[in-house]
Each structure stands twice: as C-alpha cells, then as structure tokens.
Amino acid sequence: MDELEFCVKSLSYPLGMLLENLKRKPGERVEVRNGTVYIPNVPFAAKCYLTALALFESLDVVDAKRLADDLTYVEDFIERVLLSPLGEKVRPYVEESGELISNGDKLSVDWLEFERRSEGVRPLLERILGGKEPEEIGELSVDECLLLSYLAGDRKGREKVNAVLGKLNSAFREAVKAYFKALRR
C-alpha cells in the first residue's frame, strides 16, 4: 500500500478499495477509464483529494448514496489542509478541481468483499470502543488498521481507534509517518 491508497482509505475505506484495483498512470486530470486511474502531477494533498473526489464521482448511484457521508471526510480533509501551512501550495488545485477531474467509467464497490474484510476486525473494534487495548492489534496489517478506523464511524470513534492503533501497531505507525511525510510533497 502506498501513501495515496493510505490517504484515500483513511478518508473512505470503500473508495480506497476501488483504488486497489486500478492501475495508475500520469494524466492531465484525474479520470478513471478502462481499469486505470489517470492522475496529474500535483502536490500530494491535492492528489489525494482529487483522487477521492474522482472515485466518488465515478460511483454508481446506489453506492454514491451509500457513501454520501464519506464525502464529508474528504471535504474536511481538504479544509484542514487549506488551513495548514500547505494551504497556499494546494489551494489552486482545489479551486480548479472541476477542471482537474473528468467523468470516466462508472465503478461499484464490492460490498461482499468489504463485509468479508470487516468481519475479521469488528470484534476488535467492539473491544477498543469498550475501552480495551487488545494485543492482537499489533498483528493487523496496515489495511486492516485503516478498515478498523473506518468502521469506528464518527470522528471521535476514529480518533479513539487510531490512538490505540498508533500505540500498539508499529506497521500502522510507520505508514502514518510516511503519509505525513508525503503530505509535505
């Protein structure tokens, strides 16, 4: 998993699942076409934002409705970036987002696969939200950690889960460091 997939999954795990199955190539704008996502050479924070938006816009109607709340996390992410020292570097790409995203192929989330993955981490989620710090957290993959965070739901739940993940899972901790380093690019 690279930093872009980490970023998208941290905002919306199902959108990140779509990214898993797409080849990536450079392009003038973000567009999903023929099993490939074309991504422009823009600052990383803008790349994450534009890719997440393009994936959301490529969803079929049913999935778009189901993931409508996830769009809030995408917008909150870019709002925080714009208020940070990175804001001026990223602002032009956000303001031109309509020109940097092209309508492409329609995609749909594999909800059976999502549920299959979720089954393995839900018991840990219940324990974390119940105030425990299960030792098994240290054995999870980064992908499973992101799914666990996503399943926590609201921001408060995600923060609680992420705190436990950061404390007990070294692979997740290293992925977070790489992600924050990428944000500065």
Write the H/E string, N to C.
HHEEEHHHHHHHHH
Mean pLDDT: 96
Helix tally equals 11
Low-confidence stretches: none
Distance between the termini: 18 Å
Radius of gyration: 16 Å
- Based on secondary structure, the structural category is mainly alpha
Helix content: 55-70%
What is the oligomeric state here? single chain
How many beta-strand runs? 3
* Overall outline: globular
Q: Main β-sheet, in a few words?
A: 3 strands, mixed
Percentage of residues in DSSP E strands: 5-15%
Give, in spatial order, the strands making up the sheet with the most strands: 1-3-2
Question: Which helices and strands, and how do they pair?
Answer:
Elements: H1 3-11, H2 13-20, E1 23-26, E2 31-33, E3 36-39, H3 44-58, H4 61-66, H5 68-83, H6 87-95, H7 97-100, H8 111-129, H9 142-151, H10 155-168, H11 170-183
Parallel strand pairs: 1-3
Antiparallel strand pairs: 2-3
Helix pairs in contact: 1-2, 1-3, 1-9, 1-11, 3-5, 3-6, 5-6, 8-9, 9-10, 10-11
